[in-house]
Amino acid sequence: MSILIVYDSIFGNTGQIARAMAEALAQTGPVKLASVQEARDLDPSRYNLLIIGSPTRGFRPTPEIQEFACRSDLPKTAAVFDTRINLDTINPAPLRWVVQAGGYAAERLHRELADQGCTVIGPPGEFVVEGQEGPLREGELERAADWARGIAAQAKTAD
Ligand SMILES: Cc1cc2nc3c(=O)[nH]c(=O)nc-3n(C[C@H](O)[C@H](O)[C@H](O)COP(=O)(O)O)c2cc1C
After folding, report:
1. Is the Cβ atom of 77 under 6 angstroms away from ligand 1?
2. Which domains does the chain possess?
3. Average pLDDT of the chain?
């Protein structure tokens, strides 16, 4: 089973998460890691599984990732992840509710891909950054590697 990981990243945190996933999955089979810019020149339909991730910005994925998720040549099976701010670092506290209620990139990506007929395996990966620019919360790279292994195992059974 071949896997394509596509991500966007403004400050580098989502990129680090995607890299940790790629390194974990490279032990099990062929994996291609591509930023959303690099992925424009790829043929995603050549892969069995797409793992796609974005920073949450304004409750949604970046426009570049949203555009990629609308392509008509994506693999039939996908999994989604995002990075998001640590709610505890948001002040004043009522703003935390607004951020949480606004929603996150992964759930929007899930909806977008499912609407196109993609089988989205999950749970969505949700990884936390401290403040707007990071760094990643401690342990998130290990969690990302574990999440990716779980997704790959799920995809293999679904194959
Ligand atoms: C303009 C802007 C909007 C953001 N909006 C949200 C948001 O709606 N929800 C959230 O949890 N985090 C939000 N964040 C925090 C981002 O999720 C965080 O910057 C991102 O996860 C870092 O990933 P990156 O280093 O890959 O860019 C926002 C950050 C910026 C700069």
Report:
1. no
2. 3-158 (3.40.50.360)
3. 96
